[in-house]
Amino acid sequence: MSQTPPPGYPPQGYEQPLRQDEERTWSLLCHLSYFVFGLIAPLIIMLTLGNRSQFVRHHAVEALNFHITAWIAGIASALLIFVLIGIVLLPIVLLVCAVFAIVAAIQSYQGQLYRYPLTIRLIS
Over the stretch 4-63, which tens digit does the pLDDT of each residue have? Predict the structure, then answer.
């Protein structure tokens, strides 16, 4: 005997799509996680909410690719400190990444799709 859910509840296995304000909020958090959680937040958001909203998935993937690229650039700059060029390069990398993350967060909260420039696209 198949159990049917009570009226007003979705059937099992069905995930309700996100509302537009929820999509904008989650996509904003993906980009702003650069300042707090780094790679973890966009990955979790992509895996949990990516199947409920293509908009959120796009921004989570973009943020994740950008965070990976930022980590690579940061580590390379940190290693170059031993040859002194990293002393100048590391703050520039961190500042440029912060600016890109803020621009992406603003664009996503306005409901627009955004692609980071200078990003290695590892996740699709």
Answer: 656 665 555 567 888 999 999 999 999 999 999 788 999 999 999 999 999 999 999 999
pTM to 2 decimal places: 0.83
Say how many Å lie between the first and final Cα of the chain, rounded.
41
CB 12 within 8 Å of CB 4: no
Distances in Å between the Cα of 1 and the Cα atoms of 4, 7, 9, 13, 14 are 9, 18, 19, 18, 20
Residue for token digits 């290693």? 79
pLDDT (tens digit per residue) in 77-98: 999 999 999 999 999 999 999 9
Helices (H) and strands (E) in the chain, counts: 4, 0
Give the integer Cα–Cα distance in Å for 64 and 14. 26
